[in-house]
Amino acid sequence: MKKKSTLLVASLILSLSFAVPVFAGSSVGKDPYLTIYSSFSSGGGTLVLGEASANSIADYMTHVNLSAKVYKGNTTTVLDQGIETSNNGYDAAWSSYQPKSGSYTLQAAARTYFSDGNYSDQKYSTATW
Fold this sequence. Notes:
Elements: H1 2-23, E1 35-42, E2 47-55, E3 61-72, E4 78-85, E5 91-99, E6 104-114, E7 123-128
Antiparallel strand pairs: 1-2, 2-5, 3-4, 3-6, 6-7
């Protein structure tokens, strides 16, 4: 009887040691630490600055991807666009200058990527001028 209980305990320990790493680092769905921001600002000259940024401090993350587009007014005409990847693992930023005389919509989307190959749902931000 003692030999059977020893085998049972040993097999239980082995099964737990293999199960734990499967869950360590796997993150899918929403990243609660992912923040995204977009805005337009005027520096007093003839141009307006559109900016988008995203960052995350999530565990096991490798980088943040940020995608941004500036549209003319409320149309589908794209005036500028870009994709940025965080260079320090946490922050990604993108900017674009447009003539102050127009109206614009800046749409940005961001996603966190993790060391296990998974990624978060996208978060979005919109700004208008």
